Amino acid sequence: MKTHKQFESMLMLYFHNELSAKDEAQFKKHLAECPECTGALRRMNDLKQALEHPSRAVPSPVLIERANAKVMRTIRQTKKRRFKWTFFGILDEIQDALTGFLAQPRYQLVSIGITFIIGIFVGKLWLSSGLRHDPGMLANFVNYQVALTDAEKEQLQKAMANYLIQSGGVEIADLIQSSTDDNGMVEVNLKVDRDIAIKGGLDDPTILNMLQYSARYDQDRSRRLRAIKLLAKSPQNSRNESTMISVLLNDSDPEVRDQAMDALESYDLTPQIIDAFKTIALRDSSSEIRRRAVKELYQSADETIVPILALIATNDPDSTLRKTAQNYLDVIVGKSNQQVLQ
Amino acid sequence: MDQQEIDLIERIKNGDEMAFQTMMTKYGERVMGLAFHFTKNYQDAEDLYQETFIKVYRNIGSFRFESEFFTWVYRILANQAFNFYRKSKRMMPVDPGEDDYLWETIPDDEANEADQATLNASLREEIDRALRQLSSQQRVVFILKHYEGKKIKDIAAILDCTEGTVKRYLFRATRKLQNLLVKA
Ligand SMILES: [Zn+2]
Predict the structure, then answer these.
(1) Measured between CB atoms, does B104 come within 8 Å of chain A?
(2) Which CATH number fits domain B1-93: 3.60.10.10, 3.40.50.410, 3.40.50.2300, 1.10.1740.10?
(3) ipTM of model
(4) How far is B8 from chain A (nearest CA, A)?
(5) Which chain B residue's Cα is nearest to A61?
(6) Does pTM top 0.90 for this prediction?
């Protein structure tokens, strides 16, 4: 004999008319003697009633024509520049190609997560038109995804490579075997000749991820600058912050570092930012950036900066900056009431 | 399938753009209507419409004349709607969008008396609003079940997923709609 609890799960199927004849008969019998199920079913039938008369919308011919024109434009674009794919097709095609991979139980992320991962790939390719000159960048990008384990990264790279090969527009650039015996690892380098575009606002996590990646690793200096400028318009958060810090500490171009400095100056100071400024104040090759860092440190009123300022006041190659640091130091340790030079 | 349609599809398969446009003109209104049916949002409907036809164009090679052509298109549409995800962060059209004039909303059952139609207008808006609050997966599964009268196993076949998945979305949609529409 089934209990009420077991019938409860049949209620939903009964409501949607999906019970087998035998189950339905059994359920109906239970229904007759169970006030709980009867009540629940009555409430569900209210829903059925509420859902009657759905709207149907009839599109005007103008709308259809406009939409058709857009479809044709997309199709012709794809044809004309064979490898210039627009966002439309690429997402679901990659999705199709990766579905098998992501459908494995351990990759069953929520759908937004899947979209996100795919977005990462798509965006990666978009950012580096340098990819065609640098097949290794795909691997680098996947490796940059901290949330993935090494095994997952490897699998994703392989899935992506399979996808690219399947869909054409890719050639094998090089085949290398690491050792002379026949069992050595084989490395296959792919040359990809394809640009892919994605669109989204500055609140779109995929776009932000792309920008963070571009800011740190893009080969093209002007794109790094643009990425930093765009990122600076999105609110401060730990990933934006660490991106800016990483650029400030590592970028070889002073103008790019300067741009990151602009962003960091506009942020609320955190211990990480103060640490970055300390390093930069001591180490940056540009005296202008060192000067800005020193000023920021002074304004942070953090007392751990005293030894840093002392070092700069004695060792900095720039005499003006040495003097500035000394002035700041004097104010902090109260030796002087002199107005600080700005 | 009539010979004329078979010829048309063969021409599309051979890359004939004119033939493709003819086909879009032929099915456009039905596809756009269904796109709205599945999204309950004009702008999304237009996006979905475009995605569907682009996919039809790209995959026409895999159409093997094993079903009616429109059935095949319908399947692609339902699939795209199921996996639809809004590209830009677009708000729900609470205030009338600029493209609303391009649509005419009509009652489903045309036999309605005129004043009953007005009476139902606000109710219909309420239903649409509730349906918009479902995820695209929940909404498409629910619409296929409730409005299109499909069986769970057919829905699973259309959407390429398991019956268990369909049930999960369907049950969740039902409970959510119940909370949204049925007052205590
Ligand atoms: Zn019961």
Answers:
(1) yes
(2) 1.10.1740.10
(3) 0.85
(4) 17
(5) B29
(6) no
